């Protein structure tokens, strides 16, 4: 018979003195009473912002030098999950520290409020018996002050009979979710600081997590998180609403900056793109595409929708899109045919889109896209985030209110305008580039054969030698021949289809390079059966 430990039983096993909020980071706790609501956490975050940021604790010697393979030998025992087998719609497991997961995260449970009782907070103490240590770690003694690295939310998706992973918090301020019909893919973060600059990026971290105990018939789960770093303290509230094709994480946050001499990236997203449209796979690898997302989509309201196809240069590349009124942005896996990936293990055709939906439009800022070189598909090399145009001052709270959607289907709003469903690049020996774009959508499908389609075309660092639009059975195809000003620099292309009165398509944007980034380590890239 499996044994299920309640939070109270775990606390009896180990003293909870080690888990007094940020006291585990070596500073005196500033809070009075329990953290049982967002307002409680907000007061605590504001008080912490007046102090210097603490230094994160070192890893215990027993796990200080774990390799990737070593870390994989540590597994949480699923029967020890909090609320497992207690008729709850959600339960959660815990991640062990080690390898790259060096930060210690304090984890607590907020118990339900009844008519006669106030809500209460109980820390979840670290206990090595929660984990199975295998292989070379089987006889390793792990101290109780080790602590956790994060949490994994598990539960039942709508109409599902078994429990499945839904959402994880692991590493700095990273979190990622999935739907019932997808696997994990792109992820989100609480905040990005100095990403895509010549300064070292600062990674704010969730140091404390509080999971609110759900009622038996609850459809959502609430998680509170304290974020801390040298430049900022933040109070976050996440409300998870799992779905079959769209899982929503409602994010409410209030930030207090200790330092504003940094570039602030709001609602940052992280993904991976190695090859696909416009770049051939490395030798011996038969997979046509390897990526978690194939494009950045930006909903600029009345200014239309931008689709920026992802790519990869041999150097870090930063693209900026000024937006007067941002209605949303995301990293999208538009290509979902298995034949375009041929990977039964990674299942890239089942990676979810990730979409940021502000509760009200974000005004006058920039969506930035960072594309990095990477040695293999295990490295996240794509980032996208919103950089606000307004000045942020030290001590003044910054409020955020938005949704993160992990979805497997396109938005209803994207149904009318034609979309680029495929593009290709041909690099010619004379230095020119042939670009081919395939558009599909209701707006162009309804056009008569006599209606002319106009190309609203812009290029930077290149000259257009030829442009042609051709009606096909499924939409329109656009052929371009471009001569780069310098073969070492990519040509930036923007194209929108129009008729005489209106916009017919999203604006396609791409970096078209005559030089293909080399695969320096084919043996690392290639997975051969």
TrEMBL record:
Under the heading InterPro entries, the entry gives: Gal_mutarotase_sf_dom, GH-type_carb-bd, Glucan_biosyn_MdoG/MdoD, Glucan_biosyn_MdoG_C, Ig-like_fold, Ig_E-set
The answer on whether this UniProt entry bears the keyword Signal reads yes
Coiled-coil ranges per UniProt: none
What does the record list as GO biological process?
A: beta-glucan biosynthetic process
Domain of life here?
Bacteria
Gene Ontology molecular-function annotations: carbohydrate binding; catalytic activity
User: What name is this protein filed under?
Assistant: Glucans biosynthesis protein G
- What Pfam families does its record include? MdoG
The places in or outside the cell where this protein is found are: Periplasm
Family listed? Belongs to the OpgD/OpgG family.
Q: Which residues form the Glucan biosynthesis periplasmic MdoG C-terminal domain?
A: 37-509
Organism encoding this protein: Thalassoglobus neptunius
Q: Please tell me one Gene Ontology term that the record gives under cellular component.
A: outer membrane-bounded periplasmic space
Alphabetically sorted, this entry's keywords are: Periplasm, Signal
Gene name per UniProt: mdoG
Which first-to-last residue range defines the signal peptide? Answer: 1-20
Record pathway: Glycan metabolism; osmoregulated periplasmic glucan (OPG) biosynthesis
């Amino acid at each position: 018979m499996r044994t299920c430990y309640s939070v109270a039983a775990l606390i009896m096993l180990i003293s909870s003195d080690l888990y007094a909020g940020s006291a585990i980071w070596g500073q005196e706790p500033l809070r009075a009473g329990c953290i049982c609501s967002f307002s409680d956490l907000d007061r605590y975050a504001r008080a912490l912002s007046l102090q210097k940021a603490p230094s994160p604790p070192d890893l215990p010697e027993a796990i200080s030098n774990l390799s990737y393979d070593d870390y994989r030998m540590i597994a949480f025992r699923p029967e020890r999950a909090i609320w497992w087998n207690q008729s709850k719609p959600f339960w959660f497991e815990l991640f062990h520290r080690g390898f790259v997961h060096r930060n210690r995260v304090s984890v607590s449970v907020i118990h339900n409020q009844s008519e006669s009782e106030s809500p209460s907070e109980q820390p979840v103490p670290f206990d090595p018996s929660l984990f199975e240590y295998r292989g070379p770690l089987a006889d390793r003694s792990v101290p109780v002050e080790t602590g956790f690295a994060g949490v994994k939310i598990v539960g039942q998706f709508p109409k599902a009979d078994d429990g499945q992973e839904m959402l994880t918090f692991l590493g700095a301020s990273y979190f990622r979710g999935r739907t019932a019909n997808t696997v994990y893919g792109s992820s989100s973060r609480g905040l990005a600081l100095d990403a895509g600059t010549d300064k070292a990026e600062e990674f704010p971290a969730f140091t404390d997590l509080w999971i609110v105990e759900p009622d038996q018939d609850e459809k959502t789960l609430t998680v509170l998180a304290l974020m801390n770093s040298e430049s900022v303290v933040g109070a976050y509230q996440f409300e998870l609403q799992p779905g079959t094709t769209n899982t929503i994480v409602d994010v409410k946050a209030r930030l207090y900056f200790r330092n504003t001499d940094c570039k602030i990236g709001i609602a940052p997203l992280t993904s991976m793109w190695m090859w696909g449209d416009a770049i051939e796979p490395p030798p011996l690898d038969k997979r046509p595409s390897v990526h978690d997302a194939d494009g950045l989509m930006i909903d600029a309201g009345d200014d239309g929708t931008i689709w920026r196809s992802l790519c990869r240069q041999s150097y870090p590349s930063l693209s900026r899109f000024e937006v007067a009124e941002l209605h949303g942005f995301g990293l999208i896996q538009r290509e979902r045919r298995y034949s375009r990936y041929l990977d039964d293990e990674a299942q890239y055709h089942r990676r979810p889109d990730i979409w940021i939906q502000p509760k009200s439009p974000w005004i006058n800022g920039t969506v930035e896209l960072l594309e990095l070189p990477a040695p293999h598909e295990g490295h996240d090399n794509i980032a996208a985030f919103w950089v606000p145009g307004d000045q942020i001052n030290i001590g003044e709270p910054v409020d955020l209110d938005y949704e993160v959607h992990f979805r497997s289907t396109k938005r209803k709003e994207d149904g009318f305008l034609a979309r680029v469903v495929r593009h290709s690049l041909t690099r010619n020996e004379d230095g020119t580039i042939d670009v081919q774009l395939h558009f599909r959508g209701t707006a162009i499908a309804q056009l008569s054969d006599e209606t002319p389609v106009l190309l609203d075309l812009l290029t930077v660092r290149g000259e257009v030698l030829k442009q042609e639009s051709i009606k096909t059975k499924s939409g329109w195809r656009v052929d371009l021949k471009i001569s780069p000003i310098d073969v070492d620099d990519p040509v930036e292309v923007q194209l929108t289809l129009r008729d005489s009165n209106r916009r017919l398509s999203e604006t396609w944007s791409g970096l078209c390079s005559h030089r293909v980034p080399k695969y320096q380590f084919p043996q690392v890239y290639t997975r051969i059966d």
